[in-house]
């Protein structure tokens, strides 16, 4: 029974990405479709890799990090090493995001304080103007 394959257009439609995006991942060596003349033929391995690449991008990993994680599956130290590395990267990414969240919360608090002072100063200014009229 022949393995299921996909065209570049089918993968692009399934994952809602452009053909250019898939070609870019090919150029970076992340995807390696079979070539039949000028036609690209994607196998299940390519489809899984594309899904992993897109998930990695959503999680904020760089393409270099994604490439390292995805490529580890096929090389030493294999799947276990891949998972250990991925867990380390997740911890690092989570730490970065939590710091960003704290920074955003602090900035929002600062903005609220400045906004409240501006409203108070504006009210004081308007009251003075009304009293002098």
Structure description:
- It is a single chain.
- This protein is mainly alpha-helical.
- Helices cover 73% and strands 5% of the residues.
- The protein has a two-stranded antiparallel sheet with strand order 1-2.
- α3 (44-58) packs across α4 and α4 runs antiparallel to α5.
- The longest helix has 55 residues, at 78-132.
- The model has no long low-confidence stretch (mean pLDDT 92).
Core attributes:
single chain, 133 residues, mainly alpha, two-stranded antiparallel ribbon, 5 helices, 2 strands, elongated
Class based on secondary structure composition and strand pairing: mainly alpha
Major sheet attributes: 2 strands, antiparallel
Please indicate the percent range of residues in DSSP E strands (runs of 2 or more): under 5%
Total strands: the figure is: 2
Overview in brief:
With 133 residues, the chain is mainly alpha-helical. The protein is built from 5 helices and 2 strands; from the N terminus they run H-H-E-E-H-H-H.
């Amino acid at each position: 029974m022949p393995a299921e394959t996909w065209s570049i257009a089918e993968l692009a439609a399934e994952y809602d990405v452009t053909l250019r995006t898939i070609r870019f991942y090919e150029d970076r060596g992340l995807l390696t479709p079979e070539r039949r003349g000028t036609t690209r033929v994607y196998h299940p391995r390519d489809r899984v890799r594309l899904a992993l690449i897109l998930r990695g991008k959503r999680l904020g990993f760089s393409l270099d990090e994604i490439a390292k994680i995805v490529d580890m599956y096929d090389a030493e130290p294999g799947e276990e090493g891949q998972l250990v590395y991925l867990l380390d990267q997740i911890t690092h990414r989570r730490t970065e995001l939590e710091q960003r969240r704290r920074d955003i919360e602090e900035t929002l608090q600062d903005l609220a304080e400045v906004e409240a002072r501006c409203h108070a100063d504006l009210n004081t200014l308007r009251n003075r103007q009304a009293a002098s009229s």
